Amino acid sequence: xxxxxxxxxxxxxxxxxxxxxxxxxxxxxxxxxxxxxxxxxxxxxxxxxxxxxxxxxxxxxxxxxxxxxxxxxxxxxxxxxxxxxxxxxxxxxxxxxxxxxxxxxxxxxxxxxxxxxxxxxxxxxxxxxxxxxxxxxxxxxxxxxxxxxxxxxxxxxxxxxxxxxxxxxxxxxxxxxxxxxxxxxxxxxxxxxxxxxxxxxxxxxxxxxxxxxxxxxxxxxxxxxxxxxxxxxxxxxxxxxxxxxxxxxxxxxxxxxxxxxxxxxxxxxxxxxxxxxxxxxxxxxxxxxxxxxxxxxxxxxxxxxxxxxxxxxxxxxxxxxxxxxxxxxxxxxxxxxxxxxxxxxxxxxxxxxxxxxxxxxxxxxxxxxxxxxxxxxxxxxxxxxxxxxxxxxxxxxxxxxxxxxxxxxxxxxxxxxxxxxxxxxxxxxxxxxxxxxxxxxxxxxxxxxxxxxxxxxxxxxxxxxxxxxxxxxxxxxxxxxxxxxxxxxxxxxxxxxxxxxxxxxxxxxxxxxxxxxxxxxxxxxxxxxxxxxxxxxxxxxxxxxxxxxxxxxxxxxxxxxxx
Length: 563
Ligand SMILES: Cc1cc2nc3c(=O)[nH]c(=O)nc-3n(C[C@H](O)[C@H](O)[C@H](O)COP(=O)(O)OP(=O)(O)OC[C@H]3O[C@@H](n4cnc5c(N)ncnc54)[C@H](O)[C@@H]3O)c2cc1C
Hints:
eight-stranded mixed beta sheet; globular; disordered C terminus
């Protein structure tokens, strides 16, 4: 990827075949697919890549056991089709970026013989639907075996667990890798650039988009033959821009996650199979933490996307019922909230019942193509369908999609022993080598070369987390990171690991960014104050006033077997 200032210059007043609006999973995937089919494509993102829903997921690459349950109990073929397609996509997602995604075992705790039978039959159907795409067959694990794998589990009355396979990934980094691959294929992308107006020709067809630089207020116009609206939760805004008064299609559902210290060495996830509101909750080892979520509550755009105290209480209550040692609010080290862009069925009812199917809509007059709904796991399939519609609009033969087997940037030459090669070649500690491999794949070498050339960049960002300052410089130069939030949340992942550490790291990260982005002293201080203020506000709203307090007492050793 280009440095952001250069990327802006490249799109300024330029013309393309396709303009994709929105740089989350759907838009990045669509841009990559279009470019690989030979269409000159530009990707415009209002915030940072993946800064909206696409970095707020449960990080599962899954068909969805809950959706399967609903397909069976509600005899719903729609739910079944979503599960089937997602299970196929699961395999492509994994194979295309092995450093960012991996199979994981999920344990469903059972406290009655009926539950053992019920969940066993369920996951066997799941295996069957996955067919040749399955990672490994599901199985019953005895109570003893289950407790050995997940010592935190409530052992009293445990009849065993049902273990099944799904995938896990780093959503924010996966999105950056898709955009990186897109630009390497010749596409142009720019972040922190918002489409503020669409221009239509005499026939009503969209021919240009006015774009505003969100960092300095500059404006430009980009022309294209086709426009794709991939703005997730904001899809109705762009549809409205193209056709004022158009009927809304989306319903928004908020979901929150909390992160807890993980001091048990475990590689498996636990599924809380029954919650108060009839859903499931996952407790998943993720980058050295236990990621717990999620909730599902319908919201409007006015809702502030923060984790609230009531949501924290809800998640802890559901999880603690299944644990021998309950977690308390003081254990929470970080959290995040996101909003699912669900396509409305047109009927009232709870959002948790809405099918996670996607839809590609082509507006007859404006020719705007909107790709809506879906889930991260099906981002590639959504993109394929959207680009098929693009080709139709351009009057081209439909076909030529190659993304099923197109490896993402960082995958070239990657293998399971890549972290060890970093240890051997660069003399890195295990933890740093693993962290770099998990974030950058084989691009880690370029990060390390930076640290070699500028030794001060080899320093950690903050004590207790393996990211170095070189990652920040690399992200600014090669991944279009342009704000503190970009680097501390999505590029290095520190903000997901610990709010407290992220606040402490802000001045150090800002000093690196100041150099990379030519910020003046006032701007640098403003970035630090703004960032620290935002994170403090989040922890206060979640009721986590002593975040990390308990971590001092029992700092987790970073889970060495989290992959
Ligand atoms: C709590 C939660 C848990 C989830 N868990 C999972 C999971 O485990 N597995 C799974 O497969 N899926 C999961 N999902 C679903 C998945 O995260 C989403 O389906 C997916 O990320 C949506 O991607 P998107 O690109 O459509 O939307 P977004 O990621 O929201 O991207 C849309 C982008 O458009 C940009 N934009 C908006 N307006 C403009 C404009 N005017 N100009 C330019 N850009 C604009 C926004 O800034 C944004 O970045 C979860 C979702 C939530 C909320």
